[in-house]
Design goal:
The structure holds two protein chains of two kinds. By secondary structure, chain A is mostly beta strands. Helices cover about 0% and strands about 60% of the residues of chain A. Chain A has strands at about 5, 10-15, 20-25, 30-35, 45-50, 55, 65-70, 75-80, 85-95, 100, 105-110. Chain B has no helices and eleven strands. The chains are: A mainly beta, B mainly beta.
Chain lengths: ~110, ~110
């Protein structure tokens, strides 16, 4: 595997479920990002981890919980989501201060 | 002040034509302006980027024009091809952080007809 991978690619969950999104980067980068992409809206930065420390949390509801166990892996834990949370969730990585490389995203549908 | 405004929302161009997408910003701390291209089912991919010390950057058929005084920048796609049909996002990054906090425009859906 090369670049940034995300699993699963598609996820359907009920509002009471708990699920996790996984991101893995094979680029040796030291910063990782979660973005939310909704229809007709700009990409929204959710969380940033730089050198495995969370350095940005853009007023994201607590039902989204990130985890970065090491510089290559990033998780987004989901619980009690709302239908309006349905979106494409993108992971990206970069070397600190350099361009970002995006994964293919997880298409999330909350019923 | 953190917004980047992108227009048009959608664009239809004939093969061989010129596609032009415009972006405007307010935050003078922005010092890096990338353009991303996104195909359906894929994440955005960096297409071309510019810093404000130059007014134009060209890579193949893709050119960024930058107007620092007007706080505007645009993407020009020359000789547009059907394979260029995708969503294009402009973005801006403010210096002074140890990581890349990009602010994205709303995106432009480009369709190039054969």
């Amino acid at each position: 595997e090369t670049g940034v991978t995300q699993t699963p690619r598609h996820l359907v969950m009920g509002m009471t479920n708990k699920k996790s999104l996984k991101c893995e980067q094979h680029l040796g980068h030291n910063a990782m990002y979660w973005y939310k992409q909704s229809a007709k809206k700009p990409l929204e930065l959710m969380f940033v981890y730089s050198l495995e420390e969370r350095v940005e949390n853009n007023s994201v509801p607590s039902r989204f919980s990130p985890e970065c166990p090491n510089s290559s892996h990033l998780f987004l834990h989901l619980h009690t989501l709302q239908p309006e949370d349905s979106a494409l969730y993108l992971c990206a990585s970069s070397q600190v201060g350099d361009e970002q490389f995006f994964g293919p995203g997880t298409r999330l549908t909350v019923l | 002040q953190q917004q980047v405004k992108q227009s048009p929302q959608s664009l239809i161009v004939q093969k061989g034509g010129i596609s032009i997408i415009n972006c405007a910003y307010e935050n003078t701390a922005f010092d890096y302006f990338p353009w991303y291209q996104q195909f359906p089912g894929k994440g955005p991919a960096l297409l071309i980027a510019i810093r404000p010390d130059v007014s134009e950057k060209k890579e193949g058929r893709f050119t960024i024009s930058f107007n620092k005084s007007a706080k505007q920048f645009s993407l020009h796609i020359m000789d547009s091809q059907p394979g260029d049909s995708a969503t294009y996002f402009c973005a801006a990054l403010a210096g002074g952080t140890s990581y890349g906090k990009l602010t994205f425009g709303q995106g432009t859906i480009l369709t190039v007809h054969p």
